[in-house]
Write a structure and sequence with these properties.
Elements lengths: L2 H10 L2 H26 L7 H10 L2
């Protein structure tokens, strides 16, 4: 499938389906950005236990 064919297929989708695909792409890009920050050592990470404790404390 060529890029043009893919674009035509995506544009043939209804607005809700296109919005869903765009939303998914945003999450993929965010995950890639965060992964790059972790790999570069620039991200501040916390354990799962700490993250859950912080989330519970905000309730």
């Amino acid at each position: 499938m060529t890029a043009d064919e893919l674009v035509r297929e995506v544009l043939a989708l209804d607005a809700k389906a296109r919005a869903s695909m765009a939303h998914e792409q945003l999450w993929i890009e965010e995950a890639q950005r965060r992964s790059a920050e972790i790999d570069a050592g620039t991200a501040v990470t916390v354990s799962a236990d700490e993250a859950l404790a912080r989330a519970r404390a905000r309730r």
